[in-house]
């Protein structure tokens, strides 16, 4: 069973916090699956998969003089599409950059992006647009996935961003999982969190997650890991749990 991949882009750190909390939930679920297998009377063994946290690469520096604040503008600032993409600084504390092999090998994917005009950020879309060979090979078919986002305002397009990130994952044949309303924090949250996926509202650029946001991330990570194990086992009936 390949690693559970938590993949994100984050410029200021909020989306990274969500990613780290989802990874924490996934690891907790794997520990509990491992403990259950160890205490099982059937003597079933469980080979625990890794949880890896990765970021997508920033866009390449423009050599045509376009401002880093103006993605997509050409040197005349006309707004016409430039052949060189412009600089998008990433968080210096970002996780290592993902490779296509890591994506291909994963047994589950959590994909996160800041909300940008109600949509995913360009570096995330740019990365997804580089995955046609994984689509051709069907590498992600029947693997579970979830999506997450951070925005600066409560009604600034979190749900549309989450839905937009799901679309390419459906094309890849992934099995989308959100959060059920049996999660108490989904009823109680006064900030981020939705059945479409976990989120953070970074009012005044506050990157720290609320208790409800964090507990929903943990629940999302657990659900993703649990589904990864179940789906992988269903598709590989002859093999040891998690092997
Ligand atoms: C180009 C751009 C577009 C943005 N669009 C939105 C938006 O539509 N709605 C919103 O609430 N916040 C918007 N924001 C704010 C970010 O979503 C917010 O700061 C987010 O928490 C950043 O995540 P990060 O800390 O992971 O970088 C935008 C920011 C930028 C730079």
TrEMBL record:
Residues 4-225 form the Flavodoxin-like domain. It comes from the Bacteria. Its cofactor is FMN. Gene3D superfamilies: 3.40.50.360. The keyword Endoplasmic reticulum does not apply. Residues 58-67 have a biased composition (Polar residues). Residues 58-95 are annotated as: Disordered. Residues 77-91 have a biased composition (Low complexity). The keyword Flavoprotein applies. Pfam families: FMN_red. Keywords: Flavoprotein, FMN. This is Flavodoxin-like domain-containing protein. It comes from Alteromonas stellipolaris.
